[in-house]
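Ticket #4471: structure output looks truncated?

Reporter: J.K.
Steps to reproduce: submitted the chain below (183 residues) through the standard prediction queue, then opened the result file.
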Amino acid sequence: MRGTTKNIKFLTQIIVVIALAGLYPVAQAQVSNVTVALQVNAAQTGMDVTTRGSCANNNHRGCVDVPANKKVRIQFILNGNRQCNGGSWNLSGVYLGGKNSAHKTGSWGNLDSEVQSDFSVANASTGLLNPDSGSNSQKIIIFDANRYAYDIWYKVTASCISANGSSMGTIETDPRIKNGGTQ
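Returned output as attached by the reporter:
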């Protein structure tokens, strides 16, 4: 009888491990990776998005459509010539604002609890996001948990950094994200 109890316990543990191993790839499959490629324009007055958008309606370059029940890691990559007046262009931040606005927002931030739940927000007043691991001066990654359905505009900034480390100017681009939510 004692050997039978040990066998049942052992088999139960194996079944639990197999079940959890089967669920792990399903959970991982729900996170998509999206790349938004950026390039400094010829006049060095802004950044152009060079990848197609994925939004069905009003599909502008850089528009990211996150389907319902999906999570996404969005990486913004600065490609091309990064030279500026005595320095180089480096990505400096990603901001959110204008929730559910049909047009680009004139101000960033004032993020409500839904947006703060979906993104890693560094400053809700300004809309500045925390970059995800793997970010650097040419690539900023953000994570969107996509719990709530809404549209929100994003602004990616780049700064011209001189050889001595001072900022000599900032440029930006501002497409949007369309969250499908999970509710």
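Triage note (M.O.): checked the attachment and the full token line is present. The chain is about 20% helix and 40% strand.
Status: closed, working as intended.
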